Structure formats: C-alpha cells, structure tokens
UniProtKB/TrEMBL annotation:
Protein name, entry field: Alpha/beta fold hydrolase
GO cellular component: membrane
Entry-linked Pfam families: Abhydrolase_6
Annotated GO MF terms: hydrolase activity
Domain AB hydrolase-1: from-to ranges: 33-263
Origin species: Amycolatopsis alkalitolerans
Amino acid sequence: MRTLQIMDRLSWHWIAVDGRTAHYGTGGDGRPLLFLHGWGLTDRTYAASLHHLVSAGLRVYAPALPGFGGTADLPADRRNLRGYGDWVAAFAEAAGIAGPVTLVGHSFGGGVAIRVAHDHPDLVARLVLVNSIGGSSWSNGRGVLRAIAERPLWDWGLHLQADLRPTREIARVLPVILRDAIPNVLLSPAAVWRVAHLARTADLTPELAELKARRLPVVIVWSKDDSVIGEAALLSLRTGLGEPEVVTVPGRHAWLLADPRRFGEVITNIIGLAEDTEGVA
C-alpha cells in the first residue's frame, strides 16, 4: 500500500483488492464510516465533504469504485450491483476495516450500499442512503408513476442536465465534478455508461424488503430540489424499507458537494442520535 498525499486531512492510497488495483482515501480516528461515491465521480470528488466527518471524530474510508478514479474495473461477469457490493466487502477486508461500519452511499453509491448491506450483513451496522437509487418507481412528465426500469435514458439525462443548470450552488461544485468526471469518461467510457444504465434502472425492492425484515437501522437523506432522484423514487425507496426516517435538506442531487459543512452536520447528527438510542437501550 502506497500513500500519495494528504489533502483535507485525508490520505490517499493504492491497494490491491482481489488482485486488482484500487484507490481510496482515509483519515480520522474513531468509529469507522465507509463512504461510496456517486455515478461518474471518484473518492477525491468528496474530499471537502468527508473532511467534516474526519473532523467530527470518525474514521473515514472512501474507495473509488471499480472503473472510476483509477480503480480497476470489475471482471466482465461481475459488472452488476451485486458485483460492486462484493467488491466493497473485499475492499473492506483488504483495507483492514475492523467491525461493522456506518455505510453511507450517495446516488449510485447508495444502490451499491444496499447490496453490501443485503449480501454482507456482518459488515454494516447502519445504512445512510443519500439521494440514493434503488426505488422502484419514477414519475414521467405527466405525473404518471412508472416502473423505474422503464425510465428512458433521455429522461434521466435531461434531469441530470437540469440538476446542473447554472446557479450559485452549481458554480461552486461544477469544477470539482468536471475535474473527476471528465477523466473517468476519457479513461473508462464503457464503465461510465454501463454504470449509468445500472443507476438508471436499478430496482432493489427485494433487497429493501430483506433489510426491512432484518430491522437494519436505515436513514434516508434527500434534497428537496433533486430532479435526478425524484420524489416518486424516494417514496418507493422509503416504502420498500418500511418507512425509515427521512432527513430532508435544501439543494439538488449534488448538495453534499455544494455544502460540505451541512453534509458533515447531517451525517454526524444521524450517527450521534443512533448512538444515543443504543446507549438508552
């Protein structure tokens, strides 16, 4: 394992996972938190946001998922959400992550986090889904609910573009997104578009039902102006999980990049409340 540099109190490393190169950031001391990034981005994209978790006394691990940020792609027969979930479990073992973690996933990373919690229950103490994929429904332009698998690529792309329309918020975050997204597209175009398809069509209803049956602690975080993961997808995700707590914040799909401090406060509050409840129990 080779350390590259320290930025925002995170150190960046290369590590072998299942015999393939992987990149990740880590920092801090305390209870472990594993963060999974969104589509087209990398571990480094979230450095400023993760810094606030490190400062709050958490031990943060943030891998670049396969096909992104220099991490080698998955074998051809493992390029699905289950394969990504298994890779995360293998990464945790390779990185020496001890004990069950708070698992936080943003967007596509939320879908991967659901698979990790479903397939590797001993790894996950609680699940935090931030503007996550995995719900079974979407609403078309006429307000009609449809199965998520029927959502056309053009609709997903249109709302993704709308989420990035010029505002003061986007002016702060767009350079960071482009810095990491463009190299991913240039270096791993097949992985980028394959994961886009997974994110656009993911219906994790059976996995959500199993997590509900296990009573895994889950909190959903959603931003009220998210046009990528709309309210219909949020509601179906919540229903599938048995109506867990939803924390609603201002902002769009990438709000945690635009407002790192708020992200740190939201996540540490969730963990703090959970620990208070455990202490009472």
